[in-house]
Amino acid sequence: MILGLFRRRDPNADIVDRLYAAVAQASRAPALYREGAVPDTVDGRFDLLVIHAFVVLRRLKALPEPGPDLAQDLVDATFKHLDHALRELGVGDVVVPKRMKTLASAFYGRAKAYEDALGGAEPLEDALLRNVYAKAPERAPQAAALAAYLRASVAAFDATGFDPIASATLPFPQPDPFFKGAP
């Protein structure tokens, strides 16, 4: 602990902390759980965190330097917070690395599925129904609404430069209107 007094704090740490907090806050919008019917469980919260982080990371990676560097810092912060959350849930020190490997695989698998779907490889609604709603056919209307929200988020970020993102002013749309009319 005392050695921490002599370490330099990464100058980007505050930026990354604010950015992660903004992503986490966006992923906790009540409408996503109420009207969007995303389960308010550890898995449901993870899925929404992945969706929101994916949108931010996608944009940062497309920007010139230092965008990709900030994207990597955000990934690192996300996994640091996931590690901490597992420990708070009582997962033992011996099991945490195995769970983190599983979470990393799920995170990157979902991000790839969403990127592929945005590129036309499969309907985005199908990827969301599979990942967020466990393929429940009765959740197809919510998956369609979540897909519209995700597309609008991507469009908003595609029109946003580095500075607003680095200052954690994230242009996620309000999710409520997307879920109006979804049963």
TrEMBL record:
It comes from the Bacteria. Pfam families: Ubiq_cyt_C_chap. This is Ubiquinol-cytochrome c chaperone. Residues 37-167 form the Ubiquinol-cytochrome c chaperone domain. Belongs to the CBP3 family. Signal peptide: none annotated. InterPro entries: Ubiq_cyt_c_chap, Ubiqinol_cyt_c_chaperone_CPB3, Ubq_cyt-c_CBP3-rel.
